[in-house]
Design goal:
- By secondary structure, the protein is mainly β.
- It has one domain.
- 9% of the residues lie in helices and 39% in strands.
- It has one helix spanning 21-25; strands spanning 12-16, 31-39, 48-55.
- Strands 1-3-2 form a three-stranded antiparallel beta sheet, with no helix packed on it.
Length: 57
Amino acid sequence: MAGHLLAPGGSIVTMKGLYPHEELAALAQPWSVRDVVALRVPGLDAARHLVLAGAAA
């Protein structure tokens, strides 16, 4: 929904809980995952991941 706001080569960054295997597999073209970063949040005993996605240039 926010893709039209990106500059060319820009990324959308979303925070997820558990690694979102199904969501990433369902990502439609022209979008692709650039990176997934596992996070450790102090005081939180739960999984957190940052997903960086963008459109193919």
